[in-house]
Fold this sequence. Notes:
Oligomer: single chain
Radius of gyration: 13 Å
Helix content: under 10%
Amino acid sequence: GNPALTFDGTTAQCTATCYGRNSSDRVTATLTLYHGNTYVDSWSKTGTYRVHISGETEVQRGKTYTLEMTWTVNGEKQPAVSVSKKCS
Length: 88
């Protein structure tokens, strides 16, 4: 799945859903929010087959943020996905 980044005023809402290939696959997903190269916040979750991860954090108006999703299936790294959006 792809990470989603939305803003509610100065609150960033970060969500993503990751799926394994098989029902028994162990999936670990981490969402990390950055402003440029600066770390803002992160959330991590582990589950079987499907992992839905969500988090909220305070941000500043007028700045652009990048939400990166890194995840593994049975410990095997999957391609990272990121999305950038401006908090207006």
